[in-house]
Please model this.
Amino acid sequence: MLASGCDGGGDDCLSARKHLETQVWPKFMGNTCLKCHHPSGVAVAESKAKFVLQPSSFPGFMEANLKMLEEIARIDVDGTPLLLVKPTGGSNHGGGEVIEKDSEEYKALETLVHKLKEPPSCGEEGEPTVEGVVLMTPAQTFRKAAIHLAGRLPTAAEAQKVTTEEALDGALDALMKEEVFLERVREMYNDTILTDKYDWYGSGLNLVNDDDFPKVNDIQDQDQYSPVRRRASKAVAREPLNLVAYVVQQDRSIKEILTANYVVANPFNGLIYDVTGWSNPENENEFKQVQLKTYDGTEIPHAGILTTPAFLNRWPTTPTNRSRGRARQVFESFLAFNVLKISERPVDASKITAVDNPTRNSVYCAVCHTTLDPLAGAFRGWAEQGDYTKFYPGASWHNDMVSPGFGGEDLPPSHYDKGLQWMAQKLVDDPRFAISTVYTVYTGITGHQPLSYPANPESPTYSDQLKAWDAQDAFFRSAAEQLAASGWNLKSVVKAVIKSPYFRGVTAGNPSPEQLADIGGGRLLPPEMMNRKIRAITGVYWGRFDGNGYRQDWLTRETYQNYFILYGGMDSDSVVRHLKTPNGTVAAVANRMANEMACGLTAWDFTKPVEGRRFFPRVERTVVPESAGNTVPASVNLIKENIAYLHHLILGEQLTPTDPEIERTYKLFLDTWHEMQATEETRLPWWCRGRWDRATGKELPEELHINEDPDGTIRAWQAVMAYLMMDYKFIFE
Amino acid sequence: MDRRDVLKLLGLAGLAAVCPVGVSNVSADEPKYKGPFWIMLNAGGGWDPTILCDAKGGKLGSNGEFTDSSVNHFETPLDIGPFKVGPVAWSQTFNGTPVELYSSERFINDHKGRILVINGVDTQTNNHEVGNRVTWAGRPEEGAPALAALLAAYGAKDKDLPLAFMSSGGYDNTAGVVALARSEADLRVVQRVAYPNIGNVENIGNAEDPPTQFFSNETASRIQAAQAERLAAMERATRLPALKTGMGALLLARQGTGSLGALADELASVQAVTVQSAFPEFAGLGDNAFGGDFRNLLQQGQLALHAFRAGVAVAANLSIGGFDTHSNHDNDQTRQMMKLLRAYDYIQILAAQLGLEKNLYVVIGSDFGRTPYYNEGNGKDHWNLTSMILSGPGIEGNRVVGATDAQYKPMRVDPKNVNNVLPDDDKKGVRIEPHHIHRELRRVAGFAGSDLDKQFGLAGDSLKIL
Model:
């Protein structure tokens, strides 16, 4: 259910936007009119109609169409609005009569024109929301956010403090100052620009032009396993993502990710660019702005991400492609606009040959190229390999392409040698940049794509689908406004998403599944996040220590024989989407993780004094549930207390002692303990013995070793640990 | 909770998105899948059939050079039976000696008996996204499931097939009918995943030092059972569809993990293929000869075929890119084409070794074709006409259906007899479109008429091609 916010006003009080959204667009404009007035429709592409309607794939399409309608609504023909004359076949409408006078459609259009000219004045229309959603408490929200954004659990102090929305705000602000948050931001942006393709065994170094930066050769010459070589390569590969991280770290405007007239260096690509003076030469998140120069001293006209070698190589060009592919990606990544979606009508290429220069003169091609080519032209001066080769003022661009520019404005000749700097400013000033930024964060956090506008008005659930879309669209617009109001600080969007029902919805009284679509998250954690979560909960990463004591995590890409791709990770090259749904192999990897971790952690925890234990602070391994066949109530209570403690630690559940889930877990413990009583084997499997510090891989003093389990409790607790760590609430967020 | 219970629960919960449509009779003994098997071999970026199976020659001008209207930079296609074949090959130089990877002629000669070439396929698009979708889903609409996904879901019904649909790229949208599985060719990793309760999988089969389990089998089963009960209880209790879907998917995914052991067993004695091990003629050239993407493609094929033989997979997407040759077309397109064709060759060789050849379908396709002329960078741009190549049981080889004219423009076929080619202006004829081919593939797969087939129907009329 949506609150209209216009009490008692009825349809008369509906705003023009709401009227368009509910009465006009779904009933006829979104099909009858759009068919020909789509950017690639016959009316626009062939008859050059000025009335252009954007399809629902266009970000903010409802606002864009409303704006167009407002402009057209001002035009009258013999005292009748053109918007009513044309569809009834007047004023040489190319499509003839598509709406009859006095029809319901005509009346709806008439009302729209009226509302556009004289907006209703019955007060502010409330923002649509999905009603009946129960949100997590501030404490629950913060726990989820802390794991999600910072890869850790709340501290005891935070857990005590975060009991109000205000406290949650403050705690989130602090969370977003942590190092792991920067990595999360990088991950969010890599999902769209995919430059981490080059974060792979030194391949980043290949992106550097050694004529301009000869020091790269010194690093290239190092052993391929040299930590410095690998970290320098990573720093180059991650220049675009580190720029985002820097902007966020310094609370600068997110617009700088495109407009920055600098690159960010950390101590490792700083070795290549000759940047010194680091306060901590080991800190990959210590950044400095750098203006780079080519070998002859020419200052490179940086334009944020757009001019980084990683971006330019990830989205390459050819002499005939002329950076159109790059332009397409810029539209998609930074304006949330998939250019290919404007050209989905059937193409008969056999007719194209008759047209000279089809990208300009054939309607089949020009529909995309009139949008793409101007932006592509701004990449002038940037070579196929991503080097700045200069583009001298006065030099001609390709005459057979639409002139470089944006939104109908040509690139000024004074910027021919730094076209991307001019273009970047245009891009960030476009309203779609804010929406795109919100989409990137929303998808990065929830794992969900924004809902599509419901396509079928005949669907019995159309109304509910529309409400879900409407509420989400309103949330996106609100988040975009907050972004602008915050001085374009990305953290404002992160906070908005975290506090929204899309992240913290936990249940709902609303009976409509369609309205509840996307509420509450439910994301299969990608391997990077799973890796951090395991560490957050257990204090230990899932992996092994090699012979040199180096930690190798199983859920990262670079470890030999890892589970990264099987678990749904992206290599940002051939695999460019996260798995959203678990399959048999994902489930099996999760099972293995749970078994290995339970094995490694249980006996080890019992080697510690009770006050130092992470998992078993309520029991000793000698606490058994029965004695001589009789229940020992005090022991059972302790065991259940510890089970409740583990449910909270591992799954975030606050359960009472009588909760059925406590009973279920206790039964697992008890049945396993019974099984152990029936076997003579008391030795723990080698891997599961308490002989090593699992956080460091180092062997414990011999007097602490736990090799045997004479009471059967360690193996019973191990079963409980595995059970909890393979749980839905552990592998999803 | 057994699979039957899970499916019943999911059905009650209305979780069609994660539950294969049409599941109604779940067999008790969960037999492994025995075929047919499907490989979709994708030439990513838009291939050029005019150098392969719909070959068009160029014209020499008075100066002895090819004219601007030349479709290709060769004069005369080869006639091999019903096939018009481009006389192109690709070689790489090793230690000063050029070594041929493959040629169109060799490909046709090696496989003509099994392949059906369909020429003049009209994708009606020059848009990569739409072309990819219409070629592999048979429908241009966004969200349409790939044929491989549908066939995997159909084949996996009643069975625990954790890798029913394996994808290494290409168009792999599932529309929720089946879980998408990524490929991993490393044996040790597959073994560890297949045997999550064994610590040292490398000791499997070692009688002197047998592997060690984390838990007894009894405990492991107890953990799984308790987990299934808890998950089912949570799934029943939650009201949020996003959470419900995830829980349902996890419930179902866990049912399939047991049969991963069959794949691990299958791979126990298998070494990852290299270019040298796949083709004796390339011995000494290095494991990654002809490019890492070629070896990667071979490995994708190797894993798919072994997964088929292990009975844990139904369909696999194999993909290699580099076909979007807007510049330097002759070299780059030919190079990628020969990698693709040689991979097909390897797939058939290995399939025969594994005893799968009579039960294996391979479909080769691409986003669309390329222009019948060169641009100023010696590249070719997008063209809506293309070809597809099919092989498998019930598909008559040594045959060509459909055609294009000398300038690679469309021609039609007689809907009553597709062997009759008609000019494009003869409206009695029809242009072959991807949906025609998909409908035929659905038919030979025995998939036509199924609930899934009806749910994801195809537009247009049928055309008897196969």
